[in-house]
Amino acid sequence: MERILSVIVNDRPGVLARVAGLFSRRGFNIESITVGSAEEPTYSRMTIVSHGDDAMARQMVAQLMKLVDVIEVHDISREKVVSRELALIKVRITRETRMEISHILEPFRVSIVDVGHTSMSVEVTGDTDKVNALIGLLSPYGVLEIARTGVTALVRSGISEMDAYDTRQTAWPM
After folding, report:
1. What's the domain count of the chain?
2. 7 and 51 in one domain?
3. Do the Cβ atoms of 83 and 11 come closer than 8 Å?
4. CB 3.0 to 4.6 Å from 8: which of 72, 100, 158, 166, for a disulfide?
């Protein structure tokens, strides 16, 4: 099962290395890790994605909490979360395929960030399935480079009326 751990740590040099080392020593692979500023300027939030069972998740939470610079750890794998990933994808283009590729990009709401004579770079943001789907559709044209941020996630708010609300709409329900 995919595991998403949300970890608040002190914003200090070496903390990321200690967290990654802990996973390595336990033989757990980190599929994705993102780190950025948290609500408090002295803290950072890590979002770690790995695969494992409940026992592995409990062990990782317990081991992470033993690290000096770890403030909080939450396994949010079973929570309702908002998760996003950003990817930059460079795809080969020709005069003949440029329009075809543009039509593929439309439903993904991507931003074209660079265009040359032989390639185009796009930025896509969404959940991992969306990013993977776009990469799959562009692969036959020749994906030249991919740079991905990894998953970042927050637990959804508890406002039940908003749970099913489509946030792409411009007005909030009343």
Report:
1. 2
2. yes
3. no
4. 72
Q: Which of 78, 106, 135 is the last residue of a domain?
A: 78
Q: Torsion-angle region of residue 7: left (phi > 0), alpha (psi -120 to 50) or beta?
A: beta
Do the domain assignments include residue 172? no
**Residue entry with tokens 């939030």:** 45
Residue 44 is which amino acid? S
Structural domain boundaries, residue 145: 82-153
Residue with tokens 């959804």: 156
* DSSP letters for 60-129: HHHHHHTSTTEEEEEE-TTS-EEEEEEEEEEEE--TTTHHHHHHHHGGGT-EEEEE-SSEEEEEEEE-HH
Residue 153's identity, in one-letter code, is A
pLDDT in tens, the chain (174 residues): 999 999 999 999 999 999 999 999 999 999 999 999 999 999 999 999 999 999 999 999 999 999 999 999 999 999 999 999 999 999 999 999 999 999 999 999 999 999 999 999 999 999 999 999 999 999 999 999 999 999 999 999 875 444 444 444 444 444
